[in-house]
Amino acid sequence: MKILLTGANGFLGYYLSDLLTNAGLDLLATSRGDCRLPFLSKGNFNYLPLDFTEEKSVDTVVESYAPDFIIHAGAMGKPDDCELHPELADLINVEGTRFLLSAARRVNAHFCYISTDFVFDGKEGNYKESAVRSSVNHYGLTKLRAEELVEAAALSWSIVRTVLVYGRPMTGRSNLLSIVQEKLSTGESYQVVDDQIRTPTYVGDLALGIFQLITQARTGIYHLCGQEVLTPYQMALQAAAYLSLDPSLVVRTDTASFKQAAQRPLRTGLNIEKARRELGFLPLTFQQGLLRTFGPR
Ligand SMILES: NC(=O)c1ccc[n+]([C@@H]2O[C@H](COP(=O)([O-])OP(=O)(O)OC[C@H]3O[C@@H](n4cnc5c(N)ncnc54)[C@H](OP(=O)(O)O)[C@@H]3O)[C@@H](O)[C@H]2O)c1
User: Fold this and answer.
1) Does 188 share its domain with 114?
2) Could you list the residue range(s) of the whole structural domain that residue 207 is in?
3) Residues 111 and 53 both lie in one domain
């Protein structure tokens, strides 16, 4: 089975590349720029730089590799960046997906799109796969529009939505837990909101769920996230306690007082019953996730 992955240098990309190649699958990892992954010695791992906003390059790479699966994990993923640079966000998150879809169709590849809880407005929480989408920020809107492109494409597809991913950042961007560790261990305080509801996701669980989905040849939408409902503040406090760092440096705030360029949905969190039932997806508890992220105490 041949898999082409976008966003391979990213946070999820590292864990997915490791898992897929360890499972013996042939992987063409792609990302912007040079390879930042330490897997070049694995015989079934190959890397090509590919900016998926360049349609011709997408066509050339996809047609010459002719993958069975494309996992599209690359994105402009920071909501505030998307709000401040909406045209660039449209190009990367929407047009890039369109180019990849059209190449996937030509080689008859299954297309797995990695999406987000931010396609929802945050009024309900505990969203099922069939819930009505409506985003409160530009990042969510671009992901929603990309989902619509995927659903309308004449090919086999799946959409994975996930939530506030945490874990040890290997090559990709930092995340809430790595920021807590970094700031608190140098005595710096960290302001975190306590009125946004999430189901935080351990990055290894997300990679495993995607692996289950593609190896079981599932199609349609799946929610893959953690099993516990927590606010970012609660996550940060638990992380501080786990690391024996000063909890008073975690400063509780709320959405109204914490100014960010992009509005955040208040209550998200995704319902994972379908993934549990159909894929056998069984994510870690948050405490188990802390152990995987930081190692034993
Ligand atoms: N992290 C979360 O909490 C979270 C939550 C919900 C959904 N998601 C979704 O999960 C997926 C993976 O997220 P992540 O956390 O792994 O993000 P990430 O660490 O920011 O990785 C995204 C990768 O995409 C690459 N990329 C961006 N534009 C590109 C382009 N035009 N051509 C090629 N590569 C490009 C980036 O390359 P550079 O490194 O060179 O910039 C980066 O390595 C994304 O679709 C994101 O929307 C993430």
Assistant:
1) no
2) 2-166+200-226+270-279
3) yes
Does the pLDDT at position 17 exceed 80?
A: yes
Closest ligand 1 atom to Cα of 96: 31
Helices (H) and strands (E) in the chain, counts: 11, 11
Write the pLDDT tens digit of every residue in 208-238: 999 999 999 999 999 999 999 999 999 999 9
The whole-model pTM stands at: 0.98
Q: How far apart are the first and last CA of the chain?
A: 39
Task: Examine the domain organization and report whether 38 and 122 are in the same domain.
Answer: yes
| Ligand 1 mean position, distance from CA 246 (Å) | 31
Verify whether ligand 1 is closer than 6 Å to residue 232 (CB atom): no
Q: What interhelical angle do 286-294 and 176-185 show, nearest 10?
A: 60
17 lines ligand 1 (CB under 6 A): no
Count how many domains the chain has.
Answer: 2
Mean pLDDT, the chain, whole residue set: 97
